Structures are given as structure tokens and as C-alpha cells.
Amino acid sequence: MRIKKRLFIGLLILSLVFITAVLAGGWYLGWYLMANNEILFNRILLALGIFTLVIILLLIALGIVGLVLIIWRGRNQSLLQRLGLMAVNALFPIALALGSRLGVKQATIKASFIEMNNQLVRLRGLVVKPDKILILAPHCLQWSGCPHKITIDANNCRRCGKCPIHNLHYLVDKYGVALAVATGGTLARHFVKQYHPQAVVAIACERDLTSGIQDTQPLAVLGILNERPNGPCLDTQVNLKRVEEAIQFFLYPRMIKESQMQGESWHVESSI
Ligand code: SF4
Q1: Which fold has domain 127-261?
Q2: pTM for this model (two decimals)
Q3: CA spacing 20 to 30 A to 212: which of 199, 226, 243, 268?
């Protein structure tokens, strides 16, 4: 089931309202307690602090408005996107905490964030050469009984067809993109430094995708959630059609946009 990005944007707005209310309460109390304070310096200090916080809150609010405008109009604006990412980074922990308090699962909130990120990346319309695209896959996609060490080198896979790594290699051959398989965030960051891609198609669970996307900003990362029929981290699966579509988005973004505007489905033939 696809999670709507409006959930995350709604939580961002709620977080902004929440910290504005907390800061307004703090300001009122501080001002009230200092009402009889004769030391002018303290009052100036408080006023300066409040002024700085108001500016930061205004920038964050502008960032959220920018995100809504970009997604609503379907048009990228790099300054607004940068402000939006700043707002997301600042409010993310509060949005998670508030969402949990309201009974929304953390995984659902993170999935909504990933959807929003994917939409923003697509709207950037980057055209990337195949050798600058990296498919970053998690180790749990590999069949648990496989003896081959593919995290050192994905080419150690013998393509026996027992797990999705086989089909990812098929996409590597078809499009000329790179593939790396990581056991966790540290190795994933290492591969990003090693391959120096302009775009990443990342496959992982909600938690790893969220931290990976945030760690590598402003790199263009299209996130695809893995499927876990055997529970977390064991013989996971991925929708390979979505992986292929993500590669095609980076290779032919204009053609895809035009076909979508004409209400057609994307017509580059999918092999899976
Ligand atoms: S496809 Fe590759 S990684 Fe998967 S089980 Fe076979 S050899 Fe191992």
C-alpha cells in the first residue's frame, strides 16, 4: 500500500504550530518573570533571543509553504526546495514524536517522508548518465542460504535466480548502471563516496531509507521500500518494476513527464 505524502506534510505543520506555541509560552513566562528586573541587559538579551527564534520559525514556515507549493504545482524551485529540506531536517524528530503520540506508526510516517522525497527528486528532472546511477540494495535481499560474499563485490553473485539480486544484475546489464549491496548505513555511505553517483536508487526498509536520504542530502535519492514476507531483515523482496522505473526516471525524465502530462502511461518497455 502506498502511503500519502500529505501525512508527513501535515505532521510538519503540526510540529511548527507546536513549537511556536511552546516558544510563545516560554516568551510570555520569561517576559513576565523579568517584568520587575531592573537589569536592562537581561531584557535586551531576551528580546534578541526571541527575535532570532522568530526569524528561524519564519524560515521554517516558508520552507513548509515552499514544499506544499512545489508538490501542488508540480514544478521545482531550487531555493524553496532547499528551504523545505531545512524545515524537514529541523522538524523531523518533532513530527515523529507528535505522530507517535497521535497513534501513527513511525514506519508509516517515514514511508510518507520517503514518498514526499521521491516526488521532490522527480520534480528536479535531473538527466543522469547511466554510469552515474547507483542501485544501492540491502544485504537482506540476498537469499539467506547463499554462500557468496556480495557485499564486498556485487559481482560475486552467481545469478542463480534464488533472490532479487539476480534481477538487479539484469537491470545493471540492461542500463549500464552500478550496483552495490550494503549491510548497513556505514557501508552504504562508503559506497556513495566510492561510486560518487549523481543519482541513487535506494532499496531498504523505512528506517534505513529515511536516515540514508537525510545523510546524503542534497544527492538525488529515489527510495523504494523492500517487502518483508519473512519478517524484517530476512530474505526480503523488492518490486523490480519500481526499481526499473526509478532508473528510467533518471535516464529519461522529460519523456516521462511529457507522457504523464498527456495522461499516458510510461511507454519505455519494462522488462520485468
Ligand atoms: S542470485 Fe546471487 S546472491 Fe542471490 S542466491 Fe543466487 S548467487 Fe546468491
Answers
A1: Rossmann fold (3.40.50)
A2: 0.86
A3: 268
Query: Taking a C-beta distance cutoff of 8 angstroms, is the pair 137, 162 a contact?
Result: no
Helix 40-73 vs helix 106-124: angle between axes, to the nearest 10 degrees? 70
State if residue 158 touches ligand 1 by the CB under 6 angstroms criterion. Answer: yes
Closest atom of ligand 1 to CA, residue 143: 5
How do the domains of the chain map onto residue ranges?
Answer: 6-122, 127-261
Q: Which of 70-84, 93-107, 188-202 has the lowest mean pLDDT?
A: 70-84
State the pLDDT at residue 50: 84
From 113, 114, 119, select the one nearest 225 (Cα to Cα): 114
Nearest Cα residue to atom 4 of ligand 1: 163
Classify strands 199-204 and 133-138 as parallel, antiparallel or unpaired: parallel
Cα distance between residue 202 and residue 213, in whole Å: 9
Give the residue, by CA position, lying nearest to ligand 1 atom 6.
160
